[in-house]
Amino acid sequence: MKSFTKAGLAAGSALLLAACSGGGSSGSSGADAPPDRTSATTASSPSPSPTPTPSPTPTVPPYGPTLTGYIDPVNAALGKLSASASLDAFSTALQEAVTAANAAGSGLTSAREPATIGTARRQLVVALNQLSTDLTKVRSDIKKKGVCATSAALAEVGQSEGLKAIPAALAQMTAAGYATTFAAPQTGPLQSRSLENGTMVREGRLRGQGKLNVDNGGSADAVVSLAKDGKSVHSVYVGKGKKASIEGIEDGTYEVYFSGGVDWDPTIKAFTQNCDFSKFDDTMAYETGRTYVSWSITLQPAVGGNAKTSDVDENSFPAP
After folding, report:
1. What is the pLDDT of residue 304?
2. Domain limit, last residue, from 105, 140, 175
3. Tally of structural domains, the chain
4. Letter string b/e over residues 154-182, b meaning 16 or more CB atoms within 10 A of that residue's CB
5. Exposure b/e, 58-70, CB count within 10 A at least 16 = b
6. What is the reported pLDDT for 300?
């Protein structure tokens, strides 16, 4: 800071004294004049500049609570997967877990961590991002019918590389003094169960003379159902590339439904993976006369085939 001082100059006066003498003559006698008095001024010293007030140093939040605050929502969302009673609820919980994993990865990337856990933090962020990608794929598989039951959806979640990598990164943080809780859901393995070819999944009264022959030339196992009024009466399991039949069908007009897929779950009576649901557009009439009635169907496109099929929403598909 520049300082300006003002100097004043005071001028002294010289007083000339005159003396008179007698004898009619006058003369002047010069007296020594006192010296001029000049008032000297001293420049004032500059005012000291004010000392700037230092800005307060931001307080860094403790890393332990920061870590827990990001991991807990991931835990909570994953915990809802096992409790999901339907695929719709499961898919909703998956989206919640994806959102939590993305938020945790982004938040931990921005948060200041102790130098001792820098590597573990980077590994954790990579694992969280991978978990988000993996869970998004499971949601897509549910939508595309690649996954058709919560058991299979859980099993696919269990294959997530991101889910497997998170505990290892957190273990390193725990060793450095920053512990948090992470509980991966119990998932189980993907399965590929099937029934013996020709097994009756549902067996109604078979006291008639009608017969249904099924040739499954498709690439997946199938269950064929004869139904009345939207309810299954008889259902038979037909392995891929195999043939099976239902004998003793009573008189009546039946709708023919069939579902295909991988991994038959006998508890829910459905395929858990790669499922599809269809029906023949035409009905089958059985009427005992002089001869019995026999129908034959092929579960694949066939040259010269005369039976049209339509896809059916699984919610309106009769339970086998």
Report:
1. 59
2. 175
3. 2
4. bbbbbebebbebbeebbebbeeeebebeb
5. eeeeebeebbeeb
6. 81
